[in-house]
Design a protein that fits this description.
The chain is mainly α. It has two domains: 103 residues; 60 residues. Helix 1 runs antiparallel to helix 3.
Length: 207
């Protein structure tokens, strides 16, 4: 476990360097011929930061404001990665406790169940916060995601782990009923899929 968190810290340190390089690169590409907004944006970004977005009243579409928005973007993406690593660590802990819970009974099982649920609540909060930091961050100046790339793979995996997270929570609620033994394998499979795809998404963004 110690080495796992050392790895997470190392990846985070590398991500800070990458974010600095990305911001500097974007700012160098901005000139009179560069559009202030990319042609393609996530729908949440278009709603908030588009040409007629909800935040355009407070932040008109000018080069100066876009420069400020890029700095906001950088901060939100750094937060996205920090909280993302925290979420991954929580998932590991929840998985370890969950595996022990399946093989426990009596008071031990009750204690593990409470711990598992507490970790689950923590993971859900950090996971949701991570998603918000990504979906509502201001858009970049240009969208370079045209071919298969680490960013695109990261987005594809996001669809998988978000779907799996929803399924895991829904099935967790059903475990309290009489169909516990029937639901348990599906809940476990959904949880493993969520963790596997989430971990893969974290790794993909680094390569």
């Amino acid at each position: 476990m110690k080495y796992f968190f050392v790895l997470l810290f190392s990846l985070f340190s590398l991500s800070l360097i990458a974010q600095d390089d990305l911001l500097n690169d974007l700012m160098k590409t901005q000139d009179s011929s560069t559009s202030l907004l990319p042609k393609k944006m996530v729908f949440t970004q278009r709603i908030m930061w588009g040409e007629h977005g909800l935040l355009r009243g407070a932040s008109p579409l000018t080069a100066a404001n876009r420069e400020k928005e890029l700095k906001i973007r950088r901060s939100m993406l750094v937060a996205h990665q920090v909280i993302g690593f925290t979420t991954l660590g929580g998932m590991v802990g929840q998985g370890i406790v969950g595996a022990k819970l399946y093989n426990s009974t009596g008071r031990t099982a009750r204690n593990l169940k409470n711990l598992h649920e507490g970790l689950g609540a923590f993971v859900n909060i950090t996971y949701s916060t991570t998603a918000v930091m990504s979906l509502f961050a201001p858009p970049p100046l240009i969208n370079r995601d045209k071919k298969i790339s680490s960013i695109r793979v990261h987005k594809w995996l996001a669809v998988v782990h978000m779907t799996s997270m929803i399924a895991t929570n829904v099935l967790a609620g059903m475990l309290e009923g009489p169909n516990y033994s029937k639901i348990k394998p599906f809940h476990r499979a959904a949880a493993y899929t969520a963790f596997g795809s989430y971990a893969a998404a974290v790794i993909a963004i680094k390569f």
